[in-house]
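Re: weekly structure request thread

Next one in the queue (123 aa):
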Amino acid sequence: MVENYKEKLKRLMDEYAQFVYRVTRGFPKQEIYASVSQWRRAALSIILNYIEGYARKKPLVQLNFYEISYGSFREAKYLLYFSHQQNFITEEDYDYGTNLSEEIGRMLWTEICSLETKIKQSE
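Done, posted below.
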């Protein structure tokens, strides 16, 4: 079976959340209530808001959830950078997370723009 665009995006978002949980297990203990919890929350928020938006019927409501998902994506992407700068993650994990997040960002932005176009055309 061929994976459709939305299913691929959800799979990548899940992969990113799993990645964040894996790499944050090795963070210093003093970061548990700081960058660890913030990054984990942001990573889960990406996929959870996307799924909730996907489940909504009204396009404007969908768009709102997709935009929240994108905001969480940007937050998580910064925390990836921050964690690398603090030497909390390896270069290999940083490269993997960067490549994965870049693909998610492109795909999610495409979804947002596509939905905005659909909304404008229906006005």
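The two ends are 36 Å apart (CA to CA). The CA atoms of residues 11 and 47 lie 9 Å apart.
Next request, please.
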